[in-house]
Amino acid sequence: MPKIIGGSLHEHREQTRQKLFAALSTLMAEQGFDAITLAEIAQAAGVGRTAVYNHFPDKEALLVGFITHETDQYAATLQRALDDIDDPVEQLRTYVRQQTQLKRVYHVAPGPELRSVLSRSTQQRVREHVVVVEQVLREILAAGIASGAFPEQDLDTTVPLVNACLSGRGVPDDGPARERAIAQTEAFVLRAVGAPVLVPA
Pfam families, from UniProt (predicted)? Predict the structure, then answer.
């Protein structure tokens, strides 16, 4: 019988899942999803290959589990950052800043690489989790429109455009250049939704 890590079977299962997610994330950064095998993921995670099948029936299910986990974690962090802010313009600035802190973005629609290797049903399951974060942005913009901070607009068009802009951004890792890039990104998004913008010098 395999050794249980953690204080209970539930903790063991959760820690194993976290190891698999970390291994998948690292391998995807190195070689892309299509090139990875479950055996490589198991080896990188330090677990037996059969342990992977105890959690996920195949590689796509593991990816969906990982994206679900990442999205839930990000949505909770985002909500905490927004909880004490009432002004929709400041909420939108905070949303932009939260996005720029992410190294890899999994809560947006799958990019060309993933779309080319995932089945249609898996793409749909991934898309369902994208909506979690999109809904936060939609609520910010709707509140801004209701208050007059933003002009009337079609949110079905605006929301994916803003998220596409943020997921494709290039922000330096640190220093004054990073702060300038974030400020310019904020200003760009605010202009895009029709908010008045004061760009710092």
Answer: TetR_C_27, TetR_N
| Alpha-carbon span 53 to 178, nearest angstrom | 42
CATH 1.10.10.60 segments of the chain:
9-57
- Classify 9-57 by CATH class: mainly alpha
Q: Per-residue pLDDT tens for 132-154?
A: 888 999 999 999 999 999 999 99
CA 114 – CA 33 distance, rounded (Å): 7
The whole-angstrom separation of Cα 129 and Cα 53 is: 23
CB 78 within 8 A of CB 95: yes
CATH number of 59-193: 1.10.357.10
**Which tokens go with 34?**
């299509």
